[in-house]
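Expect sequence, tokenised fold; for instance:
***
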Amino acid sequence: MRFRISTGLIALLVVGAGAIFVRTTLAGPQSGTLIFGLSAEKAELGSTKAPEADGKADPPVILTVPVETASVDTVLRLTGTLTADEKAEVASTANGIVEAVYVERGSLVEKGAVLVKVDPTDVENGLLEANAGIDELKAALGWDNARDAKGYDVENQPGVRMAKAALELTSLNNERIAKLFAQGAVSKAQYDQSSTEYESAKQRHQQALQQARQLYQSYKTACIKLKTLDKILGDTTIEAPFTGWVTQRYVSKGERVTTNPMGGGANVAAMVKVDPLRLLLMVPQQDIGHIKPGGLVRFKVDSFPDKTFTGEVRYVSPSVENMTRSMSVEALVPNPDHVLCPGFFVTAELVLPEKQTEYYVPDSAVLRENDVAKVFAVRDGKARVQVVSAGEAKDGRVRVLSGLTEGDVVVTAPDKVRDGDTVH
């Protein structure tokens, strides 16, 4: 086939990065444009890139961190129940009509606070009568407060002193008559009369002493009755025996309270002591040897899930229960704010004397796939997959329960390495 060149031939030779381009314009029935070339790097005209110096890239940097260890308390996890340190059925030993009730169920009262008041009128009248009887006995005894301050002397009682004076007189007369009778100066009848008067005086003196002693005993009995009435008057005001909650109120205003024939009081209210409380725990017999009085107990209750309370072990049961093969342990729990209540269910940690080591790694070092947790641990310079038992993440750390030991090193970014990668 024949061709005719109409416009000429323009050749462009470009040497760069191994590329050659030739452009030719042809004229004729099959005119067109033909472009051909070779490129090692880019298709753009004039593009170049310098080759690598040695043909090898530096390996990526793998960050690692040693496993963190911490010495912590060994604890025994238990469940238990809070109970009141003390309970009381508060009773009245005074008979009478209820004058006032100062508390309701659920009231928190301090020790000594008045719960119920019984009408004291009858007791007050009895006190007035008793005091009047004591004054009457003092008058019969010839009581002298200044003279008898150190104790009553029966011989100083007026009737006794008068009988003693009469006895002394008849004694002297009888001695004179007896001498005269011996001399034959008086008759036998006079002598017998003098002797009889002397014996009568002696009997009157003894009788006066006996009456004075009896009056004095009556006085002391009246004083004891007065103290009893004073106590009964005090008992008309029923006070709280300790600081605690009122759980029951048994009486109302206007109701009569009466003691039973056996001397038992009439219940007016029920109370529980809430500070401190007792924490009752059941410990398996195989663990009881580690528990001693004075040990620490940490526990939580559902009502305050974010707060941890503490107590001190005070009592360890000396016997094992047959049904559960466990022993009861009691801890004393301070409760000054009265936020804890008897009956609360608790989850507790009983701190044992021994310590244990815990292991922690950064949260970023743990890969979790469904229920499986893995880390990359450095073994002989290589990153190796290690399945671990991991707890929940807290403050950027994860506690490793198993799979790692002290001295291990883990990769902090496990998603950027593969099993077997070299760690420099």
